Amino acid sequence: MKAPDGRVRVPEDRPLRPDGEYVLYWMIAARRTRNSFGLQHAAARARELRRPLLVLEAIRVGHRWNTARVHRFVMDGMSVNARRFESLGVRHLAYVEDAVGAGRGLLRALASRACLVVTDEFPGYFLPRMVAAAAERIPRRFEVVDGNGLVPLAATDRVYTTAASFRRAVHKRAAEWVEEFPVEEPLSDYDLGWAEVPHDILGRWPSRTPQDLKGALIAGLPLDHEVGPVRDRTGGSDAGDARVERFLGDGLAHYPERSRHPDAGGTSGLSPYLHFGHVGAHGVLRRIFHEEGWDPSLIREERLARREGFWGLSPQAESFIDELVTWRELGFVHAFHRPGGLETYDDLPEWARRTLANHEEDDRPWTYDKATFESAATHEALWNACQEQLRRDGAVHGYMRMLWAKMVLGWSDSPREAFATLVALNDRWAVDGRDPNGYSGVAWCFGRFDRAWGPERPVFGKVRYMTCDASRRKLRLSRWLARYSRAGDS
DNA sequence: ATCGGCTCGCGCAA
DNA sequence: TGCGCGAAGCCGAT
User: Fold this and answer.
1) Distance CA A434, CA A124 (A)
2) CA-to-C1' distance for A31 and C8, Å?
3) Tens of pLDDT, residues A55-99
4) Taking the model in full, what pTM does it have?
5) Which nucleotide in the DNA or RNA is closest to residue A437, CA to C1'?
6) DSSP character string of A169-189
7) Which strands make up the sheet holding A114-120, listed edge to edge?
8) Which nucleotide is nearest to A455 (CA to C1')?
């Protein structure tokens, strides 16, 4: 079954070539074998044309945030996919570029033998430009499939300034979108054979084995190795799926209350897996719906636009879905319509820029530059622990993340500099940096998708104020703090 | 412990 | 035009 029409974009309308050797799926964002509109669509095309499917999953070097951390995570995922595709009888080419530019030409070489090329839509980082460039160069029909979330990006025609207005838009069409989920196992009955790839292509661009991908290969790559792999967190669909199950079995029943407290460990931890598509939003939703015995008849229209009660699920599940769909996809929709907007200071709402400008000259109790923030060397142990968690784990606890960003706003020479510092730290150290959702998290701390709050305060103006002292009072965080403390902090 | 005030944009109802 | 509502705010009053 093909992906719904509203999720398929054809940038250059070229005819497909029915006598090609295979259908090429260029897997760039939805790096998984299940619950994927992109893969499902490519498989349906292959069936229609009676040609084998060839999956190209690659990772290149030379892009801007090129760290051993991200490479390890993505290569873990490639290793899992290599095994899964092999057991499904589908050819999967796992290419790891080992020198800048070495991968150039691979996509075109494979595409020239293909009936058509299918790839993923992703509204962030350099992917939209990469897809646009590929669409121009590839002399084949090229179909871009949006499997990012419940809301098809093309079904929206504008950005939303508040979560509330987006929530209303989601609820209005939710009943329609829950009826068009991707197939859970799109390749379960695959019988179209093994795509042959010419030796000269494989000689120049070798496909790595699962063992290679998990092994020492990464050590020799030209990467920022200072940002090393995160401990205790393996990338890939196996680890991502396991995390979904763990959260459903334990965290969800206490959501969101337990997730507020850093010591309690009640967060889903799914963000990095969602970012690289090792886990898909539809798959997570499907599991929640199944666990709660939900069907669309339980939707309560009278609760439309409300934070709770619309779905007819438990309050905990509704709260999590609000996070997974409303808040996550709010950022995706914004990035889709305004590429780069979320990470641009001048794109913040007018009221926020005005009030921050009015307080630009206020005295700051402390100011630090990016290097001091980056090395977690401020006067405040609580803040340093946040930054240390980012450095070590590639993610900051959800609540502490807000404090982390708010304090950089409070302790930088200007709000503009603070914003740039945060985007840079997030880009470099977070496993899911460069995700629209990560940028919306930073931008929220500067008023994006939020509202003004009084009373007006120094530096922050009417932007929602948060303090380390209040967090210490409200939250259970002593164990978290001890864990991420650095020598010298007490 | 709980509550109101602070403040702004949206979308619906009137 | 008015009104209710809204990611996690903080602070002071009761």
Assistant:
1) 7
2) 31
3) 999 999 999 999 999 999 999 999 999 999 999 999 999 999 999
4) 0.97
5) C7
6) HHHHHHHHHTTSPPPSSTTTT
7) A8-9, A141-145, A114-120, A22-27, A53-59, A91-96
8) B6
